[in-house]
Write a structure and sequence with these properties.
- α1 runs antiparallel to α2.
- 18% of the residues lie in helices and 22% in strands.
- The protein is α+β, with helices and mostly antiparallel strands.
Length: 264
């Protein structure tokens, strides 16, 4: 991976919600994963090489395999491997509970007139927007033409009735660790979604499902996985990675010392 600028020393940097902004460890009860064995790791490395030339069906299977291996790997080694879908897995939490359509809730609160809690069914019932953009990681990798589909964040903000004093939005995640933020103007862009689908499939747990944030024009660490809370605030509150040196305004190609092609 290319180093971030600014960047932590690798030994100090958490396995991160930086891009794919967090990989989970499985379990409704929050149990910690067990280390993967040497044979599994070597086999995964071999499959990673094979996936470079694999057919799309095999690539999708490889992505699933790597996600499962990462579930059971607290060492973080599997997070360094690219998978068939082009994504890499990182984590900032030791475990992440799984949420189903029955248990999932997304709250919208803070400086609003009508605080609201949405079920997954509520979100699915709202008008959906589909975007196809490149995904750009601040570490350098890029996944072209990735479809995301969901509800425009601006629609949820309008429904809640944002108060005039508000200037920003803070996002929290049900991994219990990761946070993100946008200015209110950024949050109201038409290419910022509360996403329910990715690559034309319902969001899997490994990709932040059932609901994640998607901020198309910014580096992927802004697209927080496992979204659980949207809080309207008076000022921008730096998120998890911004507190560790990343840019708050993370426009692709115009931040973090990088000159990548824009994604939106």
């Amino acid at each position: 991976m290319n180093p971030e600028r600014p960047a932590e020393h690798p030994a100090q940097r958490p396995r991160g919600h930086s891009e794919e902004p967090s990989e989970e460890h499985p379990g409704e009860r929050g149990e910690r994963g067990t280390p993967i064995g040497r044979r599994v790791l070597l086999g995964t490395l071999g499959l990673g090489a094979l996936g470079v030339a694999a057919a799309p069906t095999l690539q999708r299977g490889l992505e699933s395999l790597l996600a499962g291996a990462a579930d059971k790997d607290p060492t973080g080694l599997t997070g360094l491997l690219p998978n068939g879908g082009g994504f890499r897995y990182y984590s900032v939490a030791s475990s992440v509970p799984r949420k189903s359509a029955r248990t999932y809730r997304l709250t919208v609160d803070g400086l609003v007139d009508r605080p609201t809690a949405y079920t997954l069914a509520d979100l699915r019932a709202l008008p959906q927007t589909r975007l196809v953009r490149d995904v750009q990681c601040v570490t350098g990798w890029r996944v072209p033409d990735t479809p995301f589909e969901g509800v425009r964040l601006s629609r949820l903000l309008d429904a809640a009735g944002v108060r005039p004093i508000a200037k920003a939005v803070r996002f929290t995640c049900f991994d219990g660790t990761y946070t993100e933020s946008l200015t209110l103007d950024q949050a109201r862009r038409a290419d910022v979604l509360v996403a329910l689908r990715m690559q034309d499939k319902d969001l899997a747990h490994a990709h932040g499902g059932p609901v994640r944030l998607y901020v198309a024009p910014m580096y992927f660490y802004k697209s927080a996985k496992w979204l659980s809370g949207i809080t309207v605030t008076e000022d921008v509150r730096p998120g998890y990675w911004e507190e560790r040196g990343y840019d708050v305004d993370a426009w692709v190609g115009r931040s973090n010392g990088r000159d990548d092609e824009p994604t939106s």
